[in-house]
Amino acid sequence: MAPSVEALLEDYEYDPTALERVAFRRVKPPLVIVEPDVSWPHNFDLFKARIQSAIGPVVVAVNHVGSTSVPGLPAKPVIDIDLVVKDIKDEASYVGPLEAAGFDFLHREPGWHEHRFFCTSDPMECNLHVWGPDCPEVERHTIFKNWLINHEDDRELYAKTKREMAVVSVKNGETVMDYNLRKQGVIRDIINRAFRDLGYLE
After folding, report:
1. Which residues lie below 8 Å from residue 176, measured CB to CB, with a gap of 6+?
2. CA angle 201-195-191, nearest 5°?
3. Reported pTM
4. Strand 104-109 relative to strand 115-120: parallel, antiparallel, unpaired?
5. CA within 13 Å, CB half, 159
6. Given the DSSP bridges, would you call strands 125-131 and 115-120 parallel, antiparallel or unpaired?
7. Are 106 and 117 within 8 A, CB to CB?
8. What is the pLDDT of residues 93-127, one digit of tens each?
């Protein structure tokens, strides 16, 4: 069953106290925005193949999301992936195999659609977000991606925002999460335009 419109419209509010830390990154990537790289789709394909080889029977979908999935959009050189598995709570079916395939399990967020988060840096930085079936966050990411692909004005607005907020965050010695929060207002404005176009908002 697809997520409801109400679930799609619900904004995520980051709560660090609700995060269950498993491990920390081995290497902290720099906060830098670079020009689009034609190798990003290929690197996603490499990660996708590695994931499917490791846990193929439990995979529902493997989606390239985030800024590196949008042609022509500057981004942090990090591949973001939404991995949908058959049962997000059955960690035994995917955690060990993904770790054996080189993905480090960093944390879980039970209060945010049972989100699990992994990362790797081979062959480049990758953030792997694991969700259960029909998760509204997966659909939100797809809607946002497709809107940016098809709307140059919002793509340029987002690129400008990313560059400006990265400069501020680096100057202030902030974390990537601080940087993400600085972009949040613009992201919500853009996705709300997409929701209106879909008839989800007045």
Report:
1. 31, 76, 169
2. 125
3. 0.96
4. antiparallel
5. 17
6. antiparallel
7. yes
8. 999 999 999 999 999 999 999 999 999 999 999 99
